[in-house]
Amino acid sequence: MRVLRRGDAGPDVAEIRSVLAALDLLPPVTGADGFGTFDVAVEQAVRAFQQRRGLITDGMVGAVTYRALRGASFHLGSRPLAHLMSSPLHGDDVLTLQERLTELGYNAGRPDGMFGQQTELGLRNFQRDMGLVVDGICGAETIRELHRLSSPRARGGSPVFLREQEQVRKAGPRLRGKRIVIDPGHGGADLGVVAGGLREADIAWDLARRLEGRMKATGMEALISRGPNQSPSEVERAKFANDAGADLFLSLHSDQNSSPDAQGVASFHFGTGTGTTSTIGELLAGFIQREVAARTGLLDCRTHPKTWDIFTRTRCPAVRVEVGYLTNPGDQRRLSDPAFRDLVAEGILIAVKRLYLLGEGDQPTGTFTFADVLAYELAKAE
């Protein structure tokens, strides 16, 4: 679909207004006047919805926001749910089903609102245990049984994210053998932010190569998600990581803002903003924030939960880092310096090391060096 923005009009905009009104983000429209116009009120309502859903808050309705809006119109029980290979079902009803099955102790996969194979498997196991027809379809009988079981069998954390923590613990503190996908943003004809003679795609590619070299020196298996002249979609980047069996996924970007005063580094991980979050992703994002900010002097813009495709489609913990604002003169000057990019790469590597150390032999933020990591790996190998 085309991107809808302020000033647009027509039946597509009318549909968006209707959905926003149903979500109580717009008042009900009673007359035909302005019903199909994308005005300031619609833009503000779209921004509020995007903020609530962990989407990019740009006030425009592209494919991702449109899918989320359509999905928000469904509640559990409003339609039968099943795994459809050709056109997977997506919506709030699927998310509710996944969260409900997870609360009851069934592995329905990451709660991303997408009805996939793991959700079907969790549903079938639930149906089998409840003596229902095991067809993998969430229909009236299954929904009645889900509503009947108002007290979950187990609480204390989402099993899918508890499994993430256990995998990191079992992997051990050494970096050797860990498989990391490094994802330089944009690429090819998509240059990303362009400012001051710098291009985001080039900065991301350079950072990826610097990080790749350091990771390989420690014995890690570092894979870059794209070539220098390629620009895969987020779904394709996630598929690359899944096919590679990655342990972690690191996406590298730089940011922009209409205000030249906006500056700093921010990191993002999977999270709905309502308590459902990738604990390992959040932990790694925090480590990256602290290490990069301490080493570079960039303003710490903290970590944030998001439901971007790059997080919902990857099976491993994923973090996206926005290193500096190319629209800020100070950040722009820093990013143009190769020595500065070395500091960023070292900070990200140290953050990954801290993740696997799980507190063992830890050192104050900003003091652990690349040489320390190499020495640690060598000592553990002997």
Detailed description of the structure:
It contains 14 helices and eight strands. With 382 residues, the chain is of the alpha/beta class. It has a six-stranded mixed sheet with strand order 4-1-5-8-6-7, sandwiched between helices. Strands 2-3 form a two-stranded antiparallel ribbon. β6, α10 and β7 form a beta-alpha-beta unit. α8 packs across α13 and α10 runs antiparallel to α13. It is globular.
Strand order of the largest sheet: 4-1-5-8-6-7
Distance separating the two termini: 58 Å
Structural category is: alpha/beta
Compressed to H and E, one letter per element, the order equals HHHHHHHEEEHEHEEHEHEHHH
Task: Specify the biggest β-sheet.
Answer: 6 strands, mixed
Our Rg estimate from Cα atoms comes to: 22 Å
Percentage of β-strand residues: 5-15%
Secondary structure tally, helices: 14
Protein topology:
Elements: H1 11-22, H2 40-53, H3 63-72, H4 92-103, H5 117-129, H6 140-148, H7 159-171, E1 179-184, E2 194-195, E3 198-199, H8 200-217, E4 221-224, H9 234-244, E5 248-255, E6 265-270, H10 279-296, E7 300-306, H11 309-312, E8 318-325, H12 329-335, H13 338-357, H14 370-381
Parallel strand pairs: 1-4, 1-5, 5-8, 6-7
Antiparallel strand pairs: 2-3, 6-8
Helix pairs in contact: 8-13, 10-13
